[in-house]
Each structure stands twice: as C-alpha cells, then as structure tokens.
C-alpha cells in the first residue's frame, strides 16, 4: 500500500507541473491575437518610384502598411508590385487565379480588375465604406465601380484627361490669343478648329494627333463626347452600346473632319502612344487629348535634359457651341478589388484595410505618386506647377466625365475594347463610312455583352 501510495504521489507530483505548464500554454495561446496574413498586389514594377517625390513605392507602402499592422496585432500584409514586368498585362494574377491562389487585395486599373468581377471572383466592398466615404466620391467615377447595389471596386485615382497645348509654338506663331483663357480655360469646337487650322504647318508641325493601333488611349477619343452632352457611348439604362446614335455621329463626324483637313499626324489607324510621344516631345504636334500622360513625360524629359524645354498649358476639351463646358475626363481609374474570402474574420480585416487605404490623405498620396488626381473630392490635391494647378482649379467647377462609359462598367469590356480598337482603325481612313463603322461596332459590342448576367 505504501509503495502504491508513494508511486501515486510521485506520478501526481510529476503530472501537476506538466498540467500547469500545458494550461499556461493554452492560456497564453488564447491571449494571442489571431494571425491573419493578407496578400496585397499593386500593379507596377519592383524598384519603381513615385512620380512626384521620387520615393520608392515599396518604401512608401512599407510605412503605410506598418502603421496599419501596429493598430491590428496579428495582421501581416505581404505586398508586391506586379504587372510591368509582364509587359503591362495581368499575367501574374492570371497565373495565381488559375492556381487557385489569387491575392486578397488587387490594386490596378478598373478594366483589369473588372475582368475578375465578371468571373464572379470579387467580394462586395460595400461594408468597407461609410456613408461619409461614399458621399465624398465623385459620382461619375464611383458609379463605374458599382453593379446595382454591389460595390465591386473602390476608385483611388484617375488620370486627368484634358487637352494639353504647347503654348510655345502658338506664341512663336503669334496666335496665342486663340487659345482658351483663364479662369475657365474653355473653348468651343469652332474655336478649337480655328486654332488647329492656324497652327497647323505639316510636316514640321501638326495641330493634333489620334491613334488606334492598340486599345491604349482610346478614352482620349471617347472624351470628345463630353463636349456633345447628348452623345452616349454606352447607355446604362438599356445596357446597350449607342455609339452610332445621331448625337454620337455628330461628334464622330467632327473628329473625322480633322483627318480630312490634314490637321492630325498621318497614320492615326496604326499609331500607338509610343509613336505619338516623340511628336509631342520634339514639338511636332501642338495639342493632344491625353493631358496627364503628356504632362508627366514632358516633365521627366525636361529634367533629364533629353528635350528642348517648352511651355505648355492644360485646357478643357472643346464643347459643341451652346453647350456647357466639357467636364474633365477621369480615365480608367485605379481601383481596389478584393477576391472573395472564405474566412469571415479575415474578410473583416480586409474591409478595415481598404477603408484605411481609401482615406483622403492616403488616397491623395497614391494619386500624386501616379501623377493623377484623387477620386475623392475631399482628398487634398496640390501642385506647384501653375500649368496644372490653375487648370484643375478651373476644371473642378465642371464635374467629371468617365471617358469609357457614362455610369457603369459593362461586363466583357475587354472584348468590347478590342472591338472598339478595330472600329477606330477603320474610322481613321480616307472616305470612311462613319455610320457603317459605328453600326457594325454597336452590333458587335452588344453581341459581346448579350450573355452578361
């Protein structure tokens, strides 16, 4: 008995510390926050920097994410810049989706993100926004992130699509007075046409340029519809393309007049941005409708000493006489999209992260870093360049215009965009049948979206 008793006591003596240790470990484990890992991919390339400050994007994001992680113990954000390395495609994310391992958060242009919503892969981001947040967004741009009541993406920044004018060449020709003047920097299509005819001096200098060699910059063509308010490229109510309407035909006919009169760089049907950029930088074209892109490359080329400096200004797109000033274009905004989540706790943290990133100060820095403007109207935006700041102050009065669609993003737009490229290639030809080209495009585009849910 005594031996058994001693054995039992000894066993108990040995077990109690082990039990206490196990209990302590369980208690300690229970006090630890749940580990949540969030994968965050940003379209870009490793080593790229912010256009306004030169700070590496990776350094900036590290600071921003570290702050979020400090206020969310247990959360780790793994981020990477993806896209440019693959020629500006979605190759990286397509491969991840195919492997069943997409990122949790994807920040890219609206069209690239929209592709995954059409596949039924994105979460509704409505819970990530407060009513105050929603009211702060530009309505014309935010509408393109919605499908009914579903917010499939949240826009951060957009390129300001406007006309950029080489003021120097107009001054040398003694016709600077023909350009739009402050405070509105607005003009009519008739005033634009007069200025284009006056400055045009081919082949040394062309008034303007268009191109359709790729989908790139198609919004620069579409934005002409902003000056013809009754012209609607895509009708949200009927969910159909209406680019062949009489109102749109009036705008397209005006544009083709520029081709017929030799006021544009020849070969528009085969041009892409890379072929037009040298014309602008070498001062061989006077005006272009892709404002923020040419503002960006001009500044960088002047700072690098690769071009002769010249003065330029931003102005509004021309408007049909008697119509309101054309609103500024917000081309293909950069947006946040979130892939569907199985873990509700993780999804809630992702919502908090998205809300954190879209706050005014952060959104403004993202926009400035890309050389764009924030979509939130309460996001601070400042520029020390009078050519930009004076025009943006004026442009705010006239609202915003989505250069691809008026108030929604149709499904399968990638395919429609290719069809539109081919239509524009046919458009920029001598003796083009404009009505026939637009009729065929509308027929093809509506067939593409016919099976949309």
Keywords:
seven-stranded mixed sheet, 14 strands, single chain, 2 domains, alpha+beta, 453 residues, disordered N terminus, D-Maltodextrin-Binding Protein, domain 2, 43% helix, three-stranded antiparallel sheet
Structure, described:
The protein is built from 17 helices and 14 strands. With 453 residues, it is of the alpha+beta class. It folds into 2 domains: 184 residues, 3-Layer(aba) Sandwich (D-Maltodextrin-Binding Protein, domain 2); 211 residues, D-Maltodextrin-Binding Protein, domain 2. Strands 1, 2, 3, 6, 12, 13 and 14 form a 7-stranded mixed sheet that branches. Strands 10-7-11 form a 3-stranded antiparallel sheet. A hairpin with a 4-residue loop joins strand 8 and strand 9. The longest helix is centred in the first third of the chain and has 30 residues. The termini are far apart.
Sum this structure up briefly.
With 453 residues, this protein is of the alpha+beta class. The chain has helices at residues 2-31, 57-71, 91-98, 110-118, 131-136, 139-142, 167-172, 189-199, 218-222, 246-260, 273-281, 291-304, 344-357, 360-369, 386-395, 413-427, 434-448; strands at residues 36-44, 75-83, 105-109, 146-147, 150-151, 154-161, 163-166, 234-235, 240-241, 287-288, 312-315, 328-338, 373-374, 400-401. It has 2 domains: 36-158 and 332-392, D-Maltodextrin-Binding Protein, domain 2 (3-Layer(aba) Sandwich); 161-329 and 407-448, Periplasmic binding protein-like II (D-Maltodextrin-Binding Protein, domain 2, 3-Layer(aba) Sandwich).
């Amino acid at each position: 008995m005594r031996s058994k008793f001693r054995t039992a006591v000894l066993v108990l003596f040995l077990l109690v510390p082990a039990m206490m240790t196990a209990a302590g470990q369980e208690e300690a484990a229970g006090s630890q926050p749940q580990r949540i890992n969030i994968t965050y991919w940003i379209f870009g390339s490793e080593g790229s920097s912010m256009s306004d400050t030169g700070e590496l994007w990776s350094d900036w994001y590290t600071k921003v994410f570290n702050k979020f992680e400090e206020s969310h113990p247990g959360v780790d954000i793994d981020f990477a810049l993806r896209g440019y390395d693959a020629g500006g495609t979605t190759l990286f994310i397509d491969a991840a989706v195919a492997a069943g391992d997409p990122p949790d958060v994807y920040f890219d242009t609206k069209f690239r993100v929209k592709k995954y919503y059409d596949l039924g892969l994105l979460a509704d981001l409505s819970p990530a926004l407060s009513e105050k947040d929603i009211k702060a967004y530009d309505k014309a741009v935010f509408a393109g992130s919605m499908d009914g009541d579903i917010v499939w993406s949240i826009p951060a920044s957009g390129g300001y699509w406007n006309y950029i004018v080489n003021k120097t060449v107009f001054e040398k020709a003694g016709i600077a007075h023909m350009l739009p003047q402050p405070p509105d920097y607005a003009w009519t299509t008739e005033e634009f046409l007069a200025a284009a005819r006056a400055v045009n001096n081919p082949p040394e200098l062309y008034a303007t340029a268009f191109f359709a060699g790729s989908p790139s910059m198609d919004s620069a063509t579409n934005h002409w519809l902003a000056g013809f308010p009754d012209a609607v490229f895509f009708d949200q109510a009927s969910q159909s393309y209406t680019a062949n309407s009489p109102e749109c035909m009036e705008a397209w006919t005006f544009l083709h007049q520029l081709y017929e009169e030799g006021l544009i760089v020849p070969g528009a049907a085969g041009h892409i941005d890379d072929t037009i950029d040298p014309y602008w930088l070498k001062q061989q074209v006077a005006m272009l409708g892709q404002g923020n892109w040419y503002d960006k490359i001009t500044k960088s080329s002047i700072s690098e000493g690769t071009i002769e400096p010249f003065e330029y200004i931003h102005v509004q797109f021309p408007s049909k006489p008697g119509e309101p000033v054309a609103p500024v274009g917000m081309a293909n905004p950069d947006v946040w999209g979130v892939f569907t989540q199985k873990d509700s706790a993780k999804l809630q943290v992702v919502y908090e992260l998205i809300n954190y990133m879209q706050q005014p100060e952060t959104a403004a820095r993202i926009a400035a870093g890309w050389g764009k403007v924030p979509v939130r109207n309460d996001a601070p935006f400042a520029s020390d360049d009078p050519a930009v700041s004076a025009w943006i102050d004026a442009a705010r009065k006239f609202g915003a215009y989505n250069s691809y669609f008026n108030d929604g993003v149709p499904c399968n737009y990638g395919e429609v965009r290719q069809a539109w490229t081919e239509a524009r290639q046919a458009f920029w030809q001598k003796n083009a049948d404009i009505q026939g080209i637009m009729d065929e495009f509308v027929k093809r585009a509506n067939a593409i979206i016919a099976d949309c849910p």
